[in-house]
Design goal:
This protein has about 425 residues and is of the alpha/beta class. It is built from 14 helices and 15 strands. It has helices at about 20-35, 50-60, 65-70, 85-95, 140-155, 175-190, 195-205, 215-220, 235-250, 295, 310-315, 340-350, 365-370, 400-414; strands spanning about 40, 50, 70-75, 80, 105-115, 125-135, 165-170, 255, 265-275, 285-290, 305-310, 330, 355-360, 375-385, 390-395. The termini are far apart.
Length: about 425
């Protein structure tokens, strides 16, 4: 008989359970709570899209498109890609589903995203993100709204003290064109000294050289001209409105003039919340304004701003949530009491109490097993349906105890 090979988990994926799952769930629960406070609607979008959606939104020469996307041809001959991020899919939906009539829209989503890259701490090939977007609002107040939401989320997760909001402006189209011309002129003087990747970026995406991590590029990037010298009055006014709004809302921030987004559809605000508690992978939440993206995808020119955060990274930073414990644990100490135990279990659950039951193994050991569950209320059942004995036990002051005793009386009287 052929030996059956034991299955293996694919490298770069993860099975989330126990403490990790509780941390993961805590992030999503806080995110859902905060998005409700800010009146953001939840939206669900497909896990895969036509490859062109991401190629056009993220740039053909970006590392994600050129190196990291999971792209394949399906049986119908269509080229499709597992989503590496959410913004492009949401913007595609805005176009194809006719959501223009609902603008401005405040949207959130979350779920798995996929990127082929070297797995490391806090970085997986299948990982999870939370995402927030405002589409159809050109005013700086939308940027402020998203940043205040992010700041409150980090506070509610208990990690805000260790995280810094870095903020920059990319200006309007006129600003960006002038700055890009100045950057190209600067980098051309040092072309031969640049890394190979940055020489390629110089042709396609020169702004990306500013955030290069290659040591050969750093001194050249650091001496490049700042955007402030090229800001139009309108762009400067927009950025000032964002920073004034953050100050009014009590959100602390710091200027990072080297924080950029390489693609031309990005405008005005760019931001990252960063920490030094995750080693080199210090960004926990990042985003910016993408006023040209929907037009770039073939839709009507529509402003947008948004951010995304890795659930795993946020989960690594929060305190471990307490393990879930049931409100009620039932110990069925006689096999003949099994049926009444089932009725009790159903009654408790229907009444909104979480409950579980121990009704297997040695009857003499079931009570001891039940005490180790550490539920709020312990219910023990002996006897049969004609003559049963039901006792309850709980620490003093447990609110659920009185409710359980009422339900037990209801059960006995049934």
């Amino acid at each position: 008989m052929a030996r059956i090979e034991t299955p293996k988990r694919i490298r770069g994926t993860q099975d989330i359970f126990g403490d990790e799952q509780r941390r993961f769930a805590a992030v999503l629960e806080k995110f859902d709570r905060v998005r409700r406070l800010y009146c953001f609607q939840r939206v669900e979008i497909p896990v895969f899209e036509a490859t062109g959606v991401f190629a056009r939104s993220m740039g053909e020469t970006s590392d994600v498109v050129s190196k990291e996307m999971y792209t394949f041809e399906d049986k119908g001959g269509d080229l499709i890609t597992l989503r590496p991020e959410f913004t492009a899919g949401i913007c595609r939906a805005f176009i194809t589903e006719g959501w223009q009539q609902h603008a401005p829209m405040k949207l959130v989503t979350s779920g798995a995203v996929f990127r082929y890259e070297r797995p490391q701490k806090g970085r997986f090939r299948q990982f999870h993100q939370i995402d927030a977007e405002i589409i159809g609002a050109a005013e700086p107040a939308a940027d402020v709204e998203l940043l205040v939401l992010a700041d409150q989320l980090l506070h509610e997760l208990g990690i805000a003290d260790g995280v810094t909001l870095q903020l920059n402006t990319l200006g309007d189209a006129e600003t960006r064109d002038a700055w890009r011309t100045a950057l190209v002129a600067h980098f051309e003087k040092h072309r031969e000294e640049l890394s190979e990747d940055s020489q390629t970026r110089l042709e396609k995406n020169p702004l990306r050289i500013l955030d290069s991590k290659d040591p050969r590029d750093r001194s050249i990037a650091d001496s490049a001209p700042d955007i402030d010298a090229y800001l139009t009055e309108e762009a400067a006014t927009f950025f000032r409105a964002v920073t004034d709004g953050l100050d009014a809302a009590g959100v602390q921030w710091t200027r990072n003039a080297r924080l950029v987004r390489g693609l031309d559809y990005y405008r005005h605000t760019a931001f990252e919340f960063v920490t030094d508690r995750l080693g080199a992978q210090g960004t926990v939440l990042a985003g910016g304004r993408y006023d040209g993206l929907i037009g770039n995808l073939g839709g009507p020119e529509t402003p947008g701003v948004g951010w995304a955060a890795g659930v795993e990274r946020l989960a690594m930073l929060i305190e471990e949530p307490p393990a879930e414990k049931p409100d009620v644990i039932i110990a069925v100490e006689d096999d003949s009491a099994f049926k009444i135990g089932l009725r009790a279990l159903k009654l408790f659950r229907q009444s909104g109490l979480s409950a579980d039951m121990i009704a297997t193994g040695s009857p003499r050991k079931r009570y001891d097993k039940a005490t180790k569950v550490l539920a709020k209320v312990l219910v023990s059942i002996r006897g049969d349906e004609d003559s049963s004995e039901i006792n309850t036990r709980a620490a003093q002051g447990v609110e659920e105890h009185e409710r359980v005793k009422e339900l037990v009386l209801q059960l006995v009287g049934a």
